[in-house]
């Protein structure tokens, strides 16, 4: 996978824009998913993940070909998400959550007139609840929790993505888990 | 309830990160057997992780790649075929 991506990057560097399309195809779901879990809103996640790819394209010459491309790409995406979260006004959060909920429902793509089995509704409600609680975490805890438990990345890779010492990543994961534990204990 | 050593919660987290040495793991397990508050705490942490991991994987919207490609700066387009 990484080899194919590196080949495509070299093509992009030579000016072949279509080769970048293949890179987007390979990583779009992962990047979108991280952004969605960070932002809790499909529209924002789409905007930010597209921005991340565009930024990667523009800065592709700064990518060190001997490193892992996904780490670099995740770094761009998480930085953009954190910027977006910090720019949001606090009263915007409520809107974002409502939109996020709609997004999840839309995503499930179930016709409106079709009745859902009860457990499926419960599980969708549970998914919404979990996403809302993730969205309530301060961004520094949210990013580590998303990367560790949703993307299943190693602590070392997370420290590279976020450009933080390993010890800081561990502390944030511990605190993020404690915060979420308090929020989710009654679920 | 508050008589437990603080290090027990630290041990729980190190255990969850698969970084707790064997000796401390034994200490933690023995403590959890005896202390209900810590047992609940540990259970809640594991439940939290399970809940977060239970969130479904979602895919990028359709036309995502086309969206990105249409927004790329044009000047670098030298070779390649238009789709």
TrEMBL record, chain A:
Residues covered by the RNA polymerase sigma factor 70 region 4 type domain: 129-180
Keyword vocabulary terms for this entry: Sigma factor, Transcription, Transcription regulation
Pfam families: Sigma70_r2, Sigma70_r4_2
UniProt cross-references to InterPro entries, sorted A to Z: RNA_pol_sigma-70-like, RNA_pol_sigma-70_dom, RNA_pol_sigma-W_bacilli, RNA_pol_sigma70_r2, RNA_pol_sigma70_r4_t2, RNA_pol_sigma_r2, RNA_pol_sigma_r3/r4-like, WH-like_DNA-bd_sf
Top-level taxonomic group: Bacteria
Domain RNA polymerase sigma-70 region as annotated: residue spans: 24-89
GO molecular function: DNA binding; sigma factor activity
Record keyword tRNA processing present: no
One example of a Gene Ontology biological process annotation: DNA-templated transcription initiation
CDD domains: Sigma70_r4
Alphabetical list of PANTHER family matching this protein: RNA POLYMERASE ECF-TYPE SIGMA FACTO, RNA POLYMERASE SIGMA FACTOR SIGV
Similarity annotation: Belongs to the sigma-70 factor family. ECF subfamily.
Protein's name in the database: RNA polymerase sigma factor SigW
Organism: Jeotgalibacillus soli
């Amino acid at each position: 996978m990484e080899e194919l991506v590196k080949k495509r990057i070299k093509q992009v560097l030579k000016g072949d824009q279509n080769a970048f399309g293949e890179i987007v195809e390979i990583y779009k779901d992962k990047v979108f998913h991280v952004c969605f879990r960070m932002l809790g809103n499909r529209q924002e996640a789409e905007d930010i993940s597209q921005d991340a790819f565009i930024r990667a394209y523009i800065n592709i010459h700064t990518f060190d070909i001997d490193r892992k491309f996904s780490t670099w790409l995740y770094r761009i995406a998480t930085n953009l998400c954190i910027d977006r979260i910090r720019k949001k006004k606090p009263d915007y959060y409520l809107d974002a959550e409502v939109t996020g909920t709609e997004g999840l429902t839309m995503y499930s793509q179930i016709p409106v007139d079709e009745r859902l089995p009860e457990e499926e509704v419960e599980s969708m409600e549970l998914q919404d609840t979990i996403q809302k609680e993730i969205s309530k975490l301060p961004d520094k805890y949210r990013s580590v929790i998303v990367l560790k438990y949703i993307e299943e990345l190693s602590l070392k890779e997370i420290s590279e993505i976020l450009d933080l010492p390993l010890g800081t990543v561990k502390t944030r994961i511990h605190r993020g888990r404690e915060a979420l534990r308090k929020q989710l204990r009654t679920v | 309830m508050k008589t437990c050593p603080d290090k027990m919660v630290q041990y729980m987290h190190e255990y969850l990160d698969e970084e707790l040495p064997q000796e401390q793991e034994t200490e933690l397990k023995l403590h959890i057997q005896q202390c209900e508050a810590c047992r609940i705490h540990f259970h809640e942490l594991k439940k939290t992780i399970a809940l977060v991991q239970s969130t479904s994987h979602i895919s990028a919207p359709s036309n995502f790649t086309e969206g990105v490609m249409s927004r790329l700066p044009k000047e670098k387009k030298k070779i390649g075929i238009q789709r």
